[in-house]
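Teaching assistant here, posting this on the class forum so everyone can see the example we discussed in section. The complex has three components, and the goal was to see what a joint structure prediction looks like when all of them are supplied at once.
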Amino acid sequence: MLLLDIEKELQFLEEKLTYIKDIFAHKQNENILLLESKLKDFKNSYKNINLAEAKRKLNSLKDLFTFLENKLDRQLTPMDKVRIVRHPQRICLKDILENVYDNYTEIGGQDEYSIDPSMLIARAYITRKVGKKIYNQPVMVIGQEKGHGEEFRNGGSVKPWGNAKALQYMKVAERENIPIHTYVFTPGAYPIEDYPGAAQQIARNLYEMAGLKVPIIAVFSEGGSGGAEAIALADMRLMLSHGYYSVISPEGAAAIEGRIRGKEKASPELIEQCASQLKMTADDNLVMGYIDRIIKEPPLGARPEHFDFFKQLRNEVIKATDEVVLRVRGISLFRYLVLRKLKNPEIYVRWALGAKAKERLLENRYRKFRKMSQHAYIDGRNNLTKIKDKSEELFWAGYSLLHYDILRRHKQVVSQLTEDIKGEIHVLLNRAKTSYHKFMCRFSWFHKRKANVCQLLSLSDWDGHKQETTPYLSPQAKVDKTITCPNASKEGCLDLWAPDLFGEMAGVCSYCGHHFPMEHEWYLYNVFDAHSLREFNQDIEATNPLDFANFSHKLETAKKKTGQKSACLTFEGKIKGIEVVVAVLTAKFRGGTVGAAEGEKFIRAVEKARLKHRPFIAYVHGTAGIRIQEGTNGVIQMPRCTLAIRNYLEAGGLYIVVYDTNSYAGPVASFLGCSPYQFAIRSSNIGFAGPGVIKETTGLEIPPDYHKAYHALSRGHIQGIWDRRQMRANLYQALLTMGGRYLYYH
Amino acid sequence: MKTSNIKELLDKIKENPYKTIVVKTPHCGTIEFVVGEGEEVKGPRGKYKEQPGTLLAYLTRENNQKPLYAQERGIISKIYPFQKGDFVEANTPILEIKHYLTKEEVLELILKETLYLFRAPEKGKYYFVPEIDKRIKAKGCQKVKLHPGEEVLILSRMKRETFLPYEGPEGIIYHLYFKPGQSLNAEDILFGVCPPEDLESIKEVVLKVKSEWEEK
Amino acid sequence: MKKHKILVANRGEIALRIMQACLNLGHDFVAVYTEEDKESLHCRFAQEKGGEKSLFKISSYQDANEILAVADYSQATAIHPGYGFFAEDYRFARRVVTRSKPLIFIGPNWKIIKELGDKIQTKRLARKLDVPTVPGSDRPIYDELEAEELARDLFIFQKEQGIEHPVILIKASAGGGGMGIEEVGDMDRFRSVLRRLRNYAQRQFGNDGVLIEQRVFDFNHLEVQIVADRHGQVVHFGTRNCTIQSTGRQKRIEVAPGFYPKTINYAFDAQKVLQDIVKYSLRIAREVKYDNVGTWEWIVSPTGQPFLMEVNTRIQVENGVSAIISRVKGQEVNLIEEQIRLGLGEKLNYSQKDISFQGVGIEYRIIAESPEENFTPWVGTITRFSYPNYPWLQVFSHVPQDKPYEIPTDFDPNLALAIVWGKDLEEAKRHGLKFLEEVVLEGENKKGEKLKSNLNFLKAKTSEILVF
């Protein structure tokens, strides 16, 4: 060994030490101090001792490093793991493409020359030798590319068009019938509103992935909330042992928890605390059931030089793909047997799927997510109610089958026939009537006797002024005070008297049309037929699944204040006689945030709409996003609910979303944003991230009207803006003009 | 206009570079001051002027406590003698702000001396005709060239509207001195027009002011 | 009698008349004004006759918050809205009486203002009571086929009435102020016009219901003056004819009574028409339990058919012309005083048989405008204004006679009202012309041009009074 080699090794150890220090940040640790001093000793001494001695000492130093790295690995806190994942030395997708796949071609990108360098697409193949035969198994590899600190990669924060590109190639994979491997390396999506906006595009991705007819394997390294979900709705979700998967960054959570505003920073302790409370590690997520397996990384996290790790990753993704494929292929008994193949990786499994297998794949995917997060809410229904609900479900299943599937076909034929006949008769009658008229018109007494003339002069029958909905008095209308319109300086609006404004004027400024927020009850009373609303699943209750500090108390306060058990209310009701199922996200319950209970209620409502063949309306009275205190229990509602919506829409349902006040983040970026018919009440805001978050993550100062409904309309996110007072009429109109395939059959 | 004259004018402004802004009540109500005499106040801030200026006072009417914000920066030079809770009528002066002139304001003053000023012939509300209004909104007023006799404004008074032709030299609208829809008196300045041949010298004036005037 | 303090929520001559009425009745008053109105005589009157703290500057006459803030501060007990502004705003009336510090609203109960303010409701109410209304629909029509059938019937109906060129109007039921009205002269164009209007109405008013009515041509505009107390007593103070108007349908001359069959020949029984419209108006007033002053507006076709147009639930500009021909138990009457008295809850204390009528009254509205140029308002400063003094003449004006007065541009351009009386139509007209000759009105605008007024127009139109 040459001195040069020793110096090289020394440099390597120094880099290792720097890395270790980076990971443990500022924290005092005796192991690190030990490494530091030993390394320093060696550095000071090796030139003075002979080469053999130096070599021996170096080897023992290396052993010490290995030993202490293992020891340190066991001491890693969740926040340390966050630092590992964010470290420039962390493996990136390019490393994986080089080392896991046998060959690949990057698609549509050469470093910074790409529509979005933070999203990387590659066609790759895995070569498998079975006996003498060699198989190249093609896959579509999609993932965020953080690189090793290059600026243009934007840290893996993908812009909407990057996610659009991902979706485009997922569809290509579907056409080519090859599996998709996605690699999640993102701190979160780039939160801008564009053509499309961040939420709009993520929602599209989720909706399409819910129905993608090829196996999807996702591997999480850094799973930052909505940005992660954009490519992570998968049949098998693997996670690297040192990765994190979370609803929000620990810093973000700390800022919210510590009520930090503007330029202040949360304390490192609070951030550490939030990181561990959010239960974002691989182990946590495995326990909660949001990932299927953990791929063990080398101590202190995988870096590009860990070739054994790549081999292991390769085996895991092959095994995962095989497993997904085998579960859906062939008859079930046989399937069980072939699953045993998995134990032997030498056996070749073809990854292309047949038609039946594709159906099963989607069924399995739906069921997989449907079963998730059941532990994260309280089902307060007593046994009797459960039996009642179940039997009602069974009844409707049978009824719908008979009514819609069997009878419908016959009746359609019959009614078409009768309509044809009616048409013929009408033509004949009309001819006769016209000639009769022409004849009779010669006699003036004929007119005078006609009742119609009477209608020109005397009172006609009219039931138009009859009240169709229940009167509602807003508590805001009971205060004798005036309110200033926010547009007053621009539009010259005079102050409005609260009893008028929140009474007859329905919260609408009579000068400029600005919509002041009304309680969600206003809509329940003014949109649906009088006495038609029946709430269901009111006993499904939000809880604190992560035992997040101080949150149980806050939740109790919200429950007491609102009388609700979650932010989601679900109803059956009628609009001018048309029966509908409605889900309402209410802003006054924890800002309308969505957690496991809300997601579950939403899904059950969608399932009810599907079962009963009813239109489904989501009225979003306001949502601040996913409830961060529930961690991934909340995030997972994005794919879960989107899957339910897709199932319903593919079955011919009609899904209308109406946004009000402020709607942001996860829900908009998934199960709300995927609706083909989204409308907004005037003066509402729709988007992905609020101005503060945008400023912090992108440095952009956005104009105050950035998220206004009119902009969302121009960006194509929503399909129309409604005056609150017209909501009932507009919904009715929508129900008439947009009926789904299996709706309105009587 | 000669450069020397401009220098003279500028020097004159420099001698007394302040403007006193009298803040009046927008409507009736009971008053409560928040600032005191001698305090410094700021106008609206932020890239989009989305943050309001310094809170000056509250004016409460019909149980609605409305904040009055400073529209310009400056020093509170006078507070009128009202006690907390006093009822004040609409349009009553309540305080004065001594405001150091900004570059734009100095420019506006000097441009008044250099441009051809088109004034309101009568009392009423003035709007641009839709076509010109569109052009101003899209490209700014300096892209609008006017010819004498061209109908440029709509005068609205007593619920009736009449078209108003432009009279003066041909040129571009260099500066607007009114907000469309504002109620104006006869002789108030509507806008300043710069004939094409004067454009260069006016640009010089602008440059001169921009380089010489230091904002405080 | 309890002494009240009445806030006069109006300006100009009506504010003056209300303040005077308050003084006559022994009540206090508070007046308001805006910056541009500070030279108006109503401000001077308030300061001179109302004592300290009787005049307040507000930002706008249209801002209810200003009015109520002043009312509370000045400890007013009632609000008189005058005409225009808040006179027929049921929300304002409701707020005045339901706020935590309630005041008396001098006008009808807000529920009545609301009901009669809805033209469809009023038309249906009239039909329910067999009161004639303009032929056509009395509810919004949404169905195209139904609309077409109605239109066709309406054409046939008019033909039968002997109308050679029948025309129908399609009106957006949610529209108002002349917006959303289209004319159709033949059935072929009906459908396309209907569709266009419905689209417009949907966009503009959020409701595409339409009303379809006959268009009545060459009608006379008549009014019935109703006065009622809050205890169920209803009387009338006769009829008025307001047919002489500007091209923009603004009244210029009002006459009481509504027709004059003594010396003028009508193609129909004019006396009966007057009796009928009075009878019908009273019928509706009793039905809705009307409880203050109000005016029932009628149009009378050239063949003498009356149709109820609308009810104005307020005191009108022209109330004085009815008062000048009326006597209660032989005494003169002031309808504004009556309005205040009854609005504050007093009983009427007389019945219809105590009311008698004498002679003819004519009211001229003197305005700086140019009738030759489509009644374009003239803007400038009035330098001289004076009028003679006669026992048969009343003049109401807020324009000072002792100094120049710049006409504010934000309001209706009325300068003065002159009411003349004569024992018969001929004498009234003679007095009218005499007044118009003697009134002096001079002024100049910024350009040095002379004031333009409608005095000549009024003179010329005097000969046409009550001719039909």
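For the discussion questions: The domain at 220-462 of chain C is CATH 3.30.470.20 (D-amino Acid Aminotransferase; Chain A, domain 1). Chain C touches chain A through 31 residues (CB under 8 Å). Think about how each of these relates to the inputs above.
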